[in-house]
Design brief:
This protein is of the alpha+beta class. The chain is built from five helices and eight strands, in the order ααβαββββββααβ. It has a five-stranded antiparallel β-sheet, with no helix packed on it. The chain has a three-stranded antiparallel β-sheet with strand order 4-5-6, with helices on one face. It is rod-shaped.
């Protein structure tokens, strides 16, 4: 082999070696965009979270508004119910005047009787027991209210004889007596026809001339109770909210 060929082979080998070494030392640029995709995905997740949070907040506001509205309605209903209960109780104990359809019972002594000269055994006069019997009959019929003359009758109203007058709610009443009741007129008449109902009074109506009359009235007005309340069974209680 000639010297020229040897020299060329050596030069070619050195050149190839340099190229191979340069290839291994060169840093190949990354072609993938993985970090950018991950960052975009995170941004999308954050945006979705913010949107969902805003939606949930709006729903919470809406639910709170509905709750507040329901509470206000319940409070109004409760107040109305309590007020209605209070008004019914006031009616039952006579703290308000009431009116409605009912009837009036007129009771009077016999026209031939003079209370100033009669004895307590006279059958032609109206006794306290007669008034009490009529009132008890009305209560048995569950009438809405009762009044005798201008005195409202409640559960504790006393009806007693004092001399020639009757004592009702600490007021002295003289005949004629007008017993007003708010209730069913026909029911009262049917009870009067039953055997044994007001038998003594009805007997003296026939035999002694006691005046007893019942009239229907489309508008009966009962006054407010003006007597005394018995506080024997009323106790003070602690307010649970205090």
């Amino acid at each position: 082999m000639s010297t020229t060929i040897k020299v060329m082979s050596i030069v070619t080998g050195i050149f190839v070696g340099v190229l191979v070494t340069a290839q291994f030392r060169t840093v190949t640029p990354l072609s993938s965009s993985y970090p950018l995709d991950q960052l975009q995905a995170q941004k999308n997740l954050i945006k979705t979270y913010i949107d969902e949070e805003a939606l949930l907040k709006s729903r919470i506001v809406s639910v709170r508004e509905k709750i507040d509205t329901s509470l206000e309605q319940n409070q109004t209903i409760s107040q109305t119910a309590n007020l209605e209960t209070l008004n019914n109780l006031k009616k039952r104990i006579g703290l308000t005047d009431i009116s409605g359809e009912g009837f009036i019972i007129a009771l009077d002594d016999s026209e031939f009787i003079d209370r100033e000269t009669i004895t307590n055994e006279e059958g032609g006069i109206i006794y306290a027991a007669d008034i009490r019997d009529v009132v008890n009959l009305l209560r048995a019929l569950s009438v809405e209210g009762i009044a005798i003359n201008d005195q409202r009758i409640i559960a504790t109203s006393p009806i007693n004889s004092v001399g020639n007058t009757l004592l009702v709610n600490n007021s002295h009443l003289a005949p004629p007596f007008s017993i007003s009741a708010i209730g069913d007129y026909n029911s009262f008449l049917r009870r009067l026809e039953e055997p044994g109902v007001l038998s003594d009074l009805q007997k003296r109506v026939k035999e002694n001339g006691i005046q007893f009359e019942v009239k229907r009235s489309p508008h009966v007005v009962l006054p407010i109770y003006n007597g005394q309340f018995r506080l024997k069974y009323i106790n003070q209680t602690n307010n649970p909210s205090s």
